[in-house]
């Protein structure tokens, strides 16, 4: 059997006295779409934060391509090939689409953008990479538009592009379709499916239709633990999953 590209074991995350993750295991296989679902507050975003290094682990280990990354800073993980598309926008609103992607391709954090601005914006580094990302995202025609003028759906696609500009092997997408209309959702779905050929996708998504359609594997979380893991068919027919969602509806969650 092949080795997982990402192998997280017994991940624990505490915020003060509150334990948001209570020993989560997650094994993600290469070139798959692996979705993480669960009722509100289950710990999905917290798990993403620990995997990508946005927050430190309390305990556990995270191995990426066989290398322990659990203690590494987020930018170090990006350099190793782990990229993340944030729910909160990561775009530079006054820069064009091309310029946004250039900033991302250079691996520049927002606070260092001014340095970059002074020397690198003038030459056309990364042009090929940027063109290929834009083609993939169907944003080629927007290349010289200022990102704040893009539609919501286009902005969400460009956010994925920002993560792709780091040339990742694995990409973490946190609710990439949130706030989208049906046409934009279909476009995003096709883009995510297309990514699987070249990289591995880990996805948090509340739209169950999308999750069931495009996932190879689904991990269902509840109260900071893994409740069930399997194929869409297995997850759909699992009573524990039904109960978890039913319980959530009864308590008023989404
Ligand atoms: N910085 C924090 N400090 C304290 N508690 C937190 C913090 N971040 C998250 N939590 C708590 O951890 C639990 C898991 O939250 P998390 O956002 O990971 O859930 P989720 O599954 O992503 O939920 P949703 O689907 O609503 O986004 C929640 O009870 C939340 O209140």
Automatic annotation (TrEMBL):
Q: Which UniProt keywords apply?
A: ATP-binding, Cell membrane, Membrane, Nucleotide-binding, Transport
**Domain ABC transporter per the UniProt entry, residue ranges:** 6-248
So which domain of life are we looking at?
Bacteria
Organism placement in taxonomy: Bacteria, Pseudomonadati, Pseudomonadota, Betaproteobacteria, Burkholderiales
Q: Does the keyword S-adenosyl-L-methionine apply?
A: no
Q: Which SMART domains would you find in this protein's record?
A: AAA
Q: Which GO terms describe its cellular component?
A: plasma membrane
Q: In the record, what terms sit under GO molecular function?
A: ATP binding; ATP hydrolysis activity
Q: What is this protein called?
A: ABC transporter ATP-binding protein
PROSITE patterns in UniProt: ABC_TRANSPORTER_1, ABC_TRANSPORTER_2
Q: Which SUPFAM superfamilies match?
A: P-loop containing nucleoside triphosphate hydrolases
Q: What is the protein's species of origin?
A: Parapusillimonas granuli
